[in-house]
Amino acid sequence: MTTAQPSTGPAPFELTATTSGLVASRAGEHRRLDERHSIDGLLADPNPIGRLAEWFAAGTAAGAVEATDLRAPVGSQEVWAAGVTYLRSRVARVAESLEAGGDSFYDRVYDAPRPELFFKASAARVVGPGAGIRIRRDSTWNVPEPELTLVVGSGGAIVGYTAGNDMSSRSIEGENPLYLPQAKVYAECAAIGPRLVLTGEPPGAELAIAMHIHRAGEEVFAGRTSTSQIKRTFAELVEHLFRDQEFPAGVFLMTGTGIVPGDDFTLAPGDEIAITVEGVGTLTNHVVVRD
Questions:
Q1: Cβ proximity of 183 and 135 under 8 Å
Q2: Neighbour-count burial of 179, counting CB atoms closer than 10 A to its CB (0-12 exposed, 13-18 middle, 19+ buried)
Q3: What share of the chain is helix, strand, coil (3-state, %, to 5)?
């Protein structure tokens, strides 16, 4: 997995969650944090980066984290998501709604002053690297949505970023836009990881994002985009999210997708989804259907 490289200033912190607790890394050094320290405590702090620097200094030297030891780097945070922020997403959602006999109101969402924001997952519905991510049994058209995901502190400041997968049941959403919660929110409906990159500021405007899907060892989809293609600023999305909302332990905000498989593609059980965000690394999950 790649390591974040800043363009200016000090190296960012990277925070990973493992089976035995949190590990903070910086410039190739790894420190296992005290069990009293948590992602909740970090994002609730008015100065998360300063607090993490203190924890890092007091941590115990550790080796690099093995991929098999990674867990979802989430505490009790909710995960929210923004929709129709990339042109490709708008095109897909318009086609989806028209096919179901609706109108192209997603065009109006794309251009509206107010962004589309919706609740995606509670912490218990989020899976980490290497875990199974679910498709619904009552959906016939399912796709992953690779998204740069913002890490936001309790005060509304963007603390850093990670990779996220906003799974979507397009056949359900396409029936009626009012079915969006059912298409988006269910058990194991989101993945986050493999690490949090904590910089204390918004991510760069041109981070590369790529997704590869393999089925029985063969690649069945590949796509890439860049955050330079997003219509709205990260600050704008967060400002709208925090209007009349409180997140005492911070929040994760998925910022929309610019990679959408064609209308003839749907996920199948056993598919492997690999989402790479520049500077974060690769978030890999396999598709499951639960009885």
A1: no
A2: middle
A3: 25, 35, 40
Instruction: Give the residue range(s) of CATH 3.90.850.10 domains in the chain.
Output: 75-288
pLDDT tens digits along 62-92: 999 999 999 999 999 999 999 888 875 555 5
* Cα–Cα dist 93/177, whole Å: 10
H or E element that contains 139? none
Cβ-contact 189, 167 below 8 angstroms? yes
Is the Cβ–Cβ distance between 158 and 151 less than 8 Å? Answer: yes
C-alpha 11/C-alpha 78 separation (Å) is 28
* CATH classification for the domain delimited by 75-288, as one of 3.30.420.40, 3.90.850.10, 3.10.180.10, 3.40.50.1110: 3.90.850.10
Residues 6 or more apart whose Cβ sits within 8 Å of residue 262: none
Q: What confidence score (pLDDT) does residue 148 get?
A: 97
195-224 pLDDT, tens digit each: 999 999 999 889 999 999 999 999 999 999
Asked whether 245 and 227 are in contact (CB, 8 A), the reply is no
Is the confidence at residue 150, as pLDDT, over 90? yes
